[in-house]
Design a protein that fits this description.
This is Nucleoside-diphosphate-sugar epimerase. This protein is of the alpha/beta class. It is 34% helix and 16% strand. The chain has eight helices and nine strands. Helix 3 packs parallel to helix 4.
Length: 270
Amino acid sequence: MSSPEQTVVITGASGRIGRAVVPLLRRPGRMLRLVDTSPAEFEPGDDISWHDVSIEDAEGIEEVLDGASGLVHLAGLASERPWADLLRVNIDGTHTVLEAARRTGVDRVLLASSIHAVGFQPVAAAGAAVPPLPRPDTYYGVSKAAMEALGSLYADRFGMSVVSARICAFTANAGDGRATAQWLSPGDMARLIEAGLALDDGAHHIVWGVSANAPGWFSLDAGFAIGYHPQDDARAVAIERDGVEPPEPDARAPLGGVFTDEQHPVGGTW
């Protein structure tokens, strides 16, 4: 078998996003090295290898990244947790992965940040051409803001091309309510990853991980600048599915929605 043209490492491949996008990222000439400590979701094959490695394992991660050309970092705790857990996994784990990428010469990286890094920003802030500064709504949001800061450091200090994707409401199917404005489809997530893997400018970019939803809460300019052109629209999906146009989503609450409520305890678990 000839060597692949491109080898991409995907951490958190057994997670909700990984399971949905891995099939969309397979193509001739590309090898996917899938990393997770959960049971394998995909059978190894000519274009897929499975690696049971924790992102806390610096040596193991470096071994998986050796010879790769791109990194998609999806692994981490995906909801609010005690500070110590988020520090260990989301912040220290991201540092471990980026440091391994630096040491092995992997200079194209996409980091799975979150809308919760800016959860206390008003909806209007999302319409600015430049994504707003962090205003996290939880410790989880703080961990994603720290992820973005690490991505910025590794771009500026080491010349890596890094995309911090502020993922909004990722689901297989478009929801209703605020989700009609915040939906990120699997297809558009795959398009965002492809844009990140093609980037080669040695800079850090914060991009909304959102589809081209008709409510238009989010400026798509930062995505366009890196070649990300989302194609899906939650409102169009809802009309086709339900036969009626959905109501306008409520834009009064901050971007983080219920995560900003007093009833949503900082450091709590769900």
